[in-house]
Structure prediction request, 308 residues.
Amino acid sequence: MTSAGSGLTLLQTCALSLLVFTGASQFALVGALAAGGGPFTAAAGAFFLGVRNAFYGLRLSQLLALPRAVRPFAAQWVIDETAAVSLAQPTRRSARIGFLVTGLSLYILWNLTTLLGALGAEAIGDTDAWGLDAAGPAVFLALLAPMLRTGTERTVAGLAVLLGLGLLPVLPAGVPVLVAALAAPVVLWARGRRGASRGDLGEGDR
Amino acid sequence: MNIWIAIGLTVLGCYAVKLAGLLVPVGALERPLVRRLAALLPVALLAALTAQQTFSDGQALVLDARAAGLAAAAVALILRAPFLLVVGAAVVVTAGVRALGG
Prediction:
């Protein structure tokens, strides 16, 4: 995939897909490293993107009712797609099957395409000439688009873009993205205040 | 070596949050504010990352062929194109604009 163009080796690229297995975090890590970010700031950005998986896990643990011994193995497959499929199932049995099938097939496909992509990128050489440096932002945009359902999300996204671009020239690489993450609590706080002053706290919520 | 450190930290961190969700007792993280924040954090991060990787070169802000590629991806998304087509559109348009000297 795109990471071969960012100075990662074939082994490092495949290790990411095998061991991290949550796409947005992988792309974020690779992007931050390519931009010259230190390992800690790069990993912090990737970590914050992965935090949403904990909330999928919360919903899934009630739904799937997995035995304790199985949970450490199931955890690796707790991602956007498996959560979406499992939560859409009408019964616990079909939810478990959905989780297993989605998890297994995505895990195999994701790692195969990573390997092929990395091999392909090594063969191509100069990835920029082929426009592959645009693949990263396009992936982010595709992940972001379905999340922009209400005004709150759009406000957060807009503020984050301003912070991310505005601070880029003045802060060390990798840090502006972390500052941009503050757009989320700031907008929530502002909305909460506005709602409280009007006396209806539920305003704007899904 | 730095890259391996970053990979190691990301692997541990991302696995830990996945497992935490499955192990934490129900109700501990179910407060509405926490849930809203967890839903909005990826929005902020993804938006900032998209903008940075399109309009920057190192620490300088630039406007180049990638902007055209991202615009193509946005159009593809509005037309509800599948994921790979969205990324493909961005790559092809960026390469095309670059080949034309953009």
Q: What stands out?
A: Chain A is about 70% helix and 0% strand. Chain A touches chain B through 94 residues (CB under 8 Å). Chain A has two domains: 2-130, 148-206. Residues 92-124 of chain A form the longest helix (33 residues).
